[in-house]
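[Q] Does anyone have a clean structure-token version of this?
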Amino acid sequence: MSTATLPDAPDATPCTPMSKKPAPRATAETMGARQRDISVSEFFAKNRHLLGFDNPRKALLTTVKEAVDNSLDACEEAGILPDITVVIEDLQPDRPASAKSSRYRITVVDNGPGIMRAQVEHIFGRLLYGSKFHRLKMSRGQQGIGISAAGMYGLITTGKPMMIQTRPKAGKKAHHIELAMNTKTNRAEVTVDEETDDFPLQRLRDLPQARGVDVLDPAAYPTGTSVTIELEGKYQKGRGSVDEFLELTAIANPHAKFTFVRPTRTTDEEEDVPLLRKAKGPESGPASPGMEPATPATTEDLGAMVVFPRGVTELPPETKEIQPHPRGVELGTLLQMLKDFEQSEKGGSLYHFLQDRFCRVSAGTAGDFCEKIGVTSRTKVADIEPPQAEALYKVFQEAKLGPPPTDCLAPIGVQQMLKGMFKGVRAEFYAASSRSAEVYRGRPFLIEAAIAFGGELPADEPARVIRFANRVPLLFQQSACSSFKAVAETNWRNYDLQQPRGSVPVGPLVVMIHMASVWVPFTSESKEAIADYDEIRKEMKLALMECGRKLGAYLRKRAKMKREGERRDIFERYIGEIAQAVEALNGTDAKKLYEALLAQAKRRTAIADLELDEHGKAMKDEDPADQEGVLIVDAAGASPAPAPTPGKPDPFALSKKEAAALKVAALAKTEHDEPALLRAPAKSVRAKEAPKPATKPEAKSAAKPAPARAVEASPTPAKPAEPAKKPKPRMRLVNGKYVPVDDGPSLF
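[A] Here you go.
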């Protein structure tokens, strides 16, 4: 039997794949060769969500927002009442219903001062280029990114260049420029440059939505600028839409007129909850001092077009540029300012530097600063060493300086906020508050707040918070905004409102907060929320509490007025029966007794007829609209009394003169502290000496006819007076003696 032997393991040679050479490692030379510059436009093209272009719907809104902001700033700086028209054209109306976006052409036209031809490429074709970044002056734009970023987004999504028309001089031809941004170089490339008389564009006036409506009249635009951008977007009504943005912008800018031409096809995936009242034509309301006109027109929704009328004809106060405050600069910024001053002012002294480059530094204060760091007033800026600059910085932090000037701010104002809120919000009570200017990081800011309560606002939903920064509405990132946090932290229960813990109040309430500042601390480049600085949130809460106190006083007074009105209703329900019974007992005229009792009931419940001022107190012969900070549409919260039945005369109808005379008579008191009208009309000599009322009181309207029926059903009609014959007094037996009826016991 033979056996096979296996080969030894060392003799076996397994099959292995061919080994690869390792890749060469990067060296300093190869890594250095890959380094290159990154332009700011190239960076934001890849990170466009930082600028608010993260989805089609938001991109459409951001484009309109940036163009409208620039138009408002330009018109106000030139002293022109803004007249701005926004046109959105749907270039793909036949798209399928499942399409998530469409191609739109957005055009924004204003009547501003226009733009010089040499500046067009820089303003619209470069990121981080503008005149507002380095100045400390209130303005809507700050970074020089917005409108050029919108053109860049349109170029990326559609490949179409931006089209600009501008006319800086009336009667001259307008410049027509088409340009596209080169993201590699952050420069504009002009493709069309010509002059034209077609401004505003005739094509916009020929749109189907604008036919039959006076829109873009060339006479209303002698100068101005028109910007057209074609992009991929999504137009949808509801919250966060172009409609809401323009509605809120109209509230914060009542001096501007906006016309919005909607696209022919819209998407309604969300419920449209309009904030502003909308009417087919002009609508009137309560007058207020300075309101132009006396009954301001409200928003006109014409379907394909919406017109937000101008509420006032006065521009906001002109703002002035200020210098930085010493306590608002940091050490690195101070060192750079010293270098810049040395280059611009050769041989300039530190003494002049402190006065020229800072605010609130007088000549004496500048001399003290120089002395504290060990230099003289003649020491040149070039001779300042870093240790001395650091010592100067510490002196800034310890110095007692006045706050920065506030003429750099242009707040909306209490009356303007009331007009803007009334122009849109459906409510019955309006209150506004404006705080004094404060400082954060050396920069002045001012907080304003307004509330609208009641009316047609939903009573079972959380209060709506509308936020503004430099008159621009903030529509996104609400929970991250300091304004919303201030509303949630305010204790609204103190003002008779319901409020869940850690949330906004619940009820028919709209809260408006506006921050005006030379530099608003936004949380991102998209300018959607205000950073949560302690100084800012504190001022917001104080402004809200001031408005809340006015609302609380109004609500408490209104509740008391309601209770007194119900009490009067009970009195009036039985006055007629009492008058009829007394007449049957002692012959007293039922009509006169009814009038006296009604006057007494009105006097006892006079609070039901009172009008309230801004503090919830009773006011006489004053219009609520005359009060600073409050506008009340219906002070009593009730509807007017219905008119008498047609064809049937009202026996108790009074003229204004008679009603005024009765009010004075009812308040007059006798020696017994009772109104004279309550004394029973007697037939004795003593009764004749009592003065008779010359007028009749105002009776209850047809809504409560019980007293009137009781008087009319009286079985004893009034007899005509006989002055020539003295009536025989009625006598009755009391304790064995006859006495006149009126001298004996009676009900009153």
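[Q] Thanks! Anything notable?
[A] The CA atoms of residues 666 and 675 lie 6 Å apart.
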